[in-house]
Amino acid sequence: MENPCLVLSDAPVGLKSDGLGFQRYVRPLVSIITGETTETPFTIGVFGPWGSGKSSLLRMIDESLAGDYADRTVRVHFNPWVHRKEPTMLLPLLHTLQDTLKEDGKQRFREVVGRLGHVIATLTSDVLLRKASGGNVSIEKIKEVSKQYAEQRGMVESEIRNLRKTLQAQADVVAENGSRLVIFIDDLDRCEPHEIIDLLESVKLFLDLRNVIVVMAIAKNVVDRGVAVKYRDFGFEAAKVVEIGDEYLDKMIQLPLTLMPIDTGAFLGHLTLPQELEAHAHLLEEMVAPNPRRIKRVLNAYSVMRTIAQADPELHRLRPDVVLRLLVLRIQSPELYEAVIVRPELAAALEDAYGGRLSPEAADHRFVERYGTTSATPMKEALKRFHRSQEYLGAVFGGTAFAEEKEQLPRYLTMLGS
Ligand SMILES: Nc1ncnc2c1ncn2[C@@H]1O[C@H](COP(=O)(O)OP(=O)(O)O)[C@@H](O)[C@H]1O
Ligand SMILES: [Mg+2]
């Protein structure tokens, strides 16, 4: 019987499937969110790169609040990416808030729901807004328009301030009913740069309210890209962009939490590895980037390869550790992987370099003799470029697996593809 192709789901996980010890974040955050002494408005930023577990942490905080503080928190989930095509993030944000309050089991917020409905209707039908925006309302435009409006009509209060006031009043009503509004904002990293800044502006303008706590998942580089696009015309250098991004978030976020690097070994122990990989778990641990999504990608790519190989007697005997090394290379260092496709001998040469058996500076004839290449120059150049270029390569080329499989290497590479 052939082994089934085991594919690991990439969906965010909840408390029951925690394999990274996230309780260490969940507990303190939940106690801050529900703490009597926590002053609001309060914004928590969960920072981490793509695939590090931000969405999962948000989900766990949500589960924990739903389990232990169901009555004391109203949890609103806003996914800006879903609404990215809408002219402004503000309306969907208000809609989401309204929908959540409508679903309250005890129907405590009927009045607030009605009020919000009114606000939404006014905003939607605001002729001034639509006229000025030409169908594309951004926060800047709302500001601009309300400025014109105020100037034209001599109004002291801007529309925005009015809206804020209304929203504040509604958040207070929710609080009087014994609950705090907790607004989760996730998947910012899937939005376009300009959309991200629009959303952050909306949050700053309209959710910075008493009795409201915002929990946001943020990949900092994505915000920086947003800043770079927003300030494109100023031509800032990359370092300046990062600095502006920092300042921007500093102003908004009272509690930044950066996810710590994961324990790769423990995470691999938590996953179900294909049987033949169990013996190579340590190798995998040394090679793979400490990122849960990356790890799952490597394992899934491996499972697919294995299923293909099972159906082909020629491929069946290929070594799992060699397949793993090549897969990790393909995912983590595509350029080096391409160089190996062009010159498979390069893999054995890198092993020799890492093993101290060959210097990239060695005489040309040694390359020609050892690897059967016609010209030593491209090999030497590739060695100089890639040898010790990244730490994990020491594990990939730290043995003689590629030399042992020299004859078969083109077959592996054909199977893995580019
Ligand atoms: N605490 C955890 N325990 C087990 N798996 C996790 C954990 N956190 C994240 N993962 C897994 O890692 C991958 C990326 O997680 P996700 O929460 O989507 O990250 P992000 O939102 O930072 O991109 C998913 O496959 C998810 O199932
Ligand atoms: Mg996510």
From TrEMBL:
Coiled coil: none annotated. Pfam families: KAP_NTPase. It comes from the Bacteria. InterPro entries: KAP_P-loop (IPR011646), NTPase_KAP_P-loop (IPR052754), P-loop_NTPase (IPR027417). Residues 24-306 form the KAP NTPase domain. PANTHER family: NTPASE KAP FAMILY P-LOOP DOMAIN-CONTAINING PROTEIN 1 (PTHR22674:SF6), NTPASE, KAP FAMILY P-LOOP DOMAIN-CONTAINING 1 (PTHR22674). This is KAP NTPase domain-containing protein.
